[in-house]
Amino acid sequence: MIRCDCSVCRSTDPRDNRTRASIYVKTPECAIVVDTGTDFRTQCLRENIWEVDAVIMTHSHTDHVMGFDDLRRFAASRGGRMPVYASAETMADLERVYEFAFKTPSPWPGYLKPEPHIISGPFSLGETMITPLPVPHGNSETYGYLFSRHDTRLLAYLSDCSAVPDEIARQIEGVQLLVIDALRHKPHPTHLSVAQALEVAERVRPTRTLFTHICHELPQSAESELPPHTGIAYDGLKIDLAG
Description:
This protein is of the alpha/beta class. It is about 20% helix and about 25% strand. It is built from seven helices and twelve strands.
């Protein structure tokens, strides 16, 4: 946090040094990024990412979209084209904020040319089936996503939510990895607390659970207090899933 001297903000544990929530999913067929937050450029440089074949958006809050323009470096080799998947509401916000990129025809040859895909249900990228998971985020709605291959539920990603309805929990039940919002211990109006995230995990029964979208009130050391097979995600964490 800017202008904060708390123990987490001054921690020497590199896992406490967190940038905005996002994931990079690499499959045998393609490379996918979920959200292009304010730190997108820094994250790509840090992780030496060279490929992005498609972008999926959870919602249009600034901490999830303000690195969108840096997609141009990944789109340059194909004339600027980049498939972008989002809800109708999120896509409308992207088109408003990044009007210069969505403008057709583009006045800048070779510049980023987003190819909008409105999400209205499950869709495939290669052999990966991606199922949208609409969840409340305070008074607004965001999309989480379930990634499946060959009918195996591999990853459920719910980065911003204040609740997980039973219908959504049933859709992701038994997933190999649940990555879920757990902002802090104290309740919050638009995010899950640690206790609430653990309650969701009890309903979903994943093989493993990781907390994300952590604020500076939850140190990495708190992981030792969590149940088995439950942890706190950190920047640069890499996980192999088979399905």
